[in-house]
């Protein structure tokens, strides 16, 4: 049997938002900055393995709790027990004119297991809210106050906690449906476990599943970022002449931008958000002329050259290329592998760049400053989406990310310089695995470090 949670509270405190966030569903109900958005009771089931675990029941907000509570105090029902008064007030035709919305709430009170009372912490515990709690107490059901908007500062958390404690409501849960943290959601489920011990295992499964899903989403998004960075770092655009033309630069920049856009779309999909939730702005691209780094020990190794005297071999290679560039035909380029002693099989990917060098054509590649910006923007987007509640209405703008430290710049530049040599890793199909290589592991560690830091 699922647990029925009745979500109640004053108008505009974030009741519908809470349900959207718990369901990871932006489409549930309607939410708005104006009060009185929800006009009807609506139920949605949280299902795990085809079994409903929670029934979440959304209700309209209280609008005039003071007036309703007064009808009990000053009229004929004063002598009735709270519970009897509720049954009466839920259906009394003479109350419908003034308390139509409240009656919709009262009718649900008998059908639920637990009441979640949503509080907007931007407001202190005013009389109208306290009357709402008094009305709900009449149902003799457990009430869990949800301290919503908890990340908005300043707020009235302390005043509310004191006021709730005076009413024996100690088991409150802090929440923010916009700045979402799974630890808050876990606390909610743990509170439900203590109130309904018969459902302990069921709720435990829910917590574990939620944790697992969150971990998987994060891993997938980080993987997408690695792909985007590898593809950006290894992308080369051969130009038609020694000097890149504006059309070459445009084509190059469009490609890098499209890689970032594709990554953003993929992340939105992973986190079930929509295109309108993120705005991409101002990626400054510094295309640099690509240079085959023939003196780099890793590059030599990749070419199949095992040498202990890297500098000497490097000099020999440099000389060979210079000789070739000096006037030999393009066909000669294919003999380059033999000339430098590399296994041409492994050096295949460099063929086009060497041929372009021989043809005296520029090759555009992404500069490390751009790659660092892409890394930072990507990590920031993942971090944002990981904590974005499904009730958030404002789009997240990706602009310039915060600047890295000098040490980080040096570390990232070194990493991207090495990655840029691996042109054979450039792949359009991002569903393919990335190579099992120490450079990829290093990139992954940097991304994880950036996500952990925020
Ligand atoms: N910053 C912040 N905004 C929130 C939070 N919860 C809700 N909101 C915003 O508050 C507004 C009202 O949210 P709703 O979910 O419509 O509130 P409601 O209680 O269902 O409103 P009614 O149906 O009118 O009673 C929306 O603009 C939400 O985006 C929160 O925890 N933090
Ligand atoms: Mg609502």
Taking all Cα atoms into account, the compactness measure Rg is: 31 Å
The proportion of strand residues reads 5-15%
- Oligomeric description of these chains: single chain
pLDDT averaged over residues: 83
Low-pLDDT residue spans: 303-347
H/E element order: EHEEHHHEHEHEHHEHEEHHHHHEHEHH
Main sheet: strands, sense, barrel: 6 strands, mixed
Secondary structure layout plus pairing:
Elements: E1 3-9, H1 15-23, E2 42-48, E3 51-58, H2 65-74, H3 82-91, H4 93-109, E4 114-120, H5 127-137, E5 143-148, H6 157-166, E6 173-174, H7 182-195, H8 200-234, E7 236-238, H9 246-270, E8 278-280, E9 287-289, H10 297-302, H11 310-325, H12 336-340, H13 344-347, H14 351-358, E10 363-366, H15 368-386, E11 396-398, H16 406-419, H17 438-453
Parallel strand pairs: 1-3, 1-4, 4-5, 5-6, 8-11
Antiparallel strand pairs: 2-3, 7-10, 9-10
Care to describe what's here?
The protein is of the alpha/beta class and 454 residues long. The chain folds into two domains: 3-195, Rossmann fold (3-Layer(aba) Sandwich); 214-453, no CATH class. The protein is 50% helix and 12% strand. It has helices at 15-23, 65-74, 82-91, 93-109, 127-137, 157-166, 182-195, 200-234, 246-270, 297-302, 310-325, 336-340, 344-347, 351-358, 368-386, 406-419, 438-453; strands at residues 3-9, 42-48, 51-58, 114-120, 143-148, 173-174, 236-238, 278-280, 287-289, 363-366, 396-398. The longest helix is centred in the middle third of the chain and has 35 residues, at 200-234. The two termini are 39 Å apart.
């Amino acid at each position: 049997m699922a647990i029925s949670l009745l979500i109640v509270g004053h108008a505009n405190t974030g009741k519908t938002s809470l349900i959207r966030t718990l369901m990871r569903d932006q489409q549930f109900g309607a939410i708005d900055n104006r009060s009185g958005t929800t006009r009807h009771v609506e139920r949605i089931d949280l299902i795990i393995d085809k079994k409903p675990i929670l029934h979440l029941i959304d209700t309209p907000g209280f609008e005039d709790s003071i007036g309703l509570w007064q009808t009990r105090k000053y009229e004929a029902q004063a002598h009735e027990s709270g519970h009897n008064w509720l049954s009466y007030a839920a259906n009394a035709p003479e109350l419908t004119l003034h308390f139509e919305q409240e009656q919709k709430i009262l009718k649900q009170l008998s059908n639920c297991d637990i009441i979640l009372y949503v509080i907007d912490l931007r407001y202190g515990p005013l009389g109208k809210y306290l009357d709402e709690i008094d009305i709900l107490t009449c149902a003799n059901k457990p009430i869990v106050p949800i301290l919503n908007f908890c990340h908005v500062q300043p707020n009235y958390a302390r005043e509310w906690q004191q006021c709730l404690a005076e009413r024996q409501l100690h088991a409150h849960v802090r929440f923010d449906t916009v700045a979402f943290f799974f630890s808050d959601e876990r606390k909610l489920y743990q509170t439900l476990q203590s109130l309904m011990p018969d459902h302990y295992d069921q709720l435990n499964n829910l917590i574990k599943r939620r944790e697992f899903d969150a971990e998987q989403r994060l891993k997938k998004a980080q993987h997408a970022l690695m792909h985007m960075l590898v593809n950006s770092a290894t992308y080369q655009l051969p130009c038609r002449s020694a000097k890149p033309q504006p059309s070459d630069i445009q084509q190059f920049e469009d490609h890098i931008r499209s890689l970032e856009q594709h990554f953003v779309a993929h992340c939105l999909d992973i986190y079930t958000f929509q295109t309108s939730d993120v705005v991409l702005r101002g990626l400054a691209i510094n295309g640099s002329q690509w240079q085959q780094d023939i003196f780099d020990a890793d590059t030599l190794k990749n070419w199949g050259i095992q040498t202990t005297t890297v500098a000497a071999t490097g000099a020999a290679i440099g000389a060979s290329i210079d000789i070739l560039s000096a006037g030999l035909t393009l066909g000669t380029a294919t003999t380059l592998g033999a000339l430098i002693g590399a296994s041409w099989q492994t050096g295949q990917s460099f063929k086009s760049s060497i041929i372009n060098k021989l043809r005296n054509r520029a090759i555009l590649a992404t500069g490390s400053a751009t790659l660092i910006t892409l890394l930072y923007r990507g990590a920031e987007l993942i971090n944002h989406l990981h904590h974005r509640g499904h009730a958030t209405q404002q789009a997240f703008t990706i602009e310039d990310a915060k600047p890295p430290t000098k040490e980080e710049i040096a570390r990232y530049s070194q990493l991207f310089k090495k990655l840029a040599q691996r042109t054979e890793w450039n792949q359009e199909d991002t569903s393919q695995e990335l190579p099992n290589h120490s450079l990829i592991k290093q990139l992954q560690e940097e991304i994880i470090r950036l996500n952990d830091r925020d």
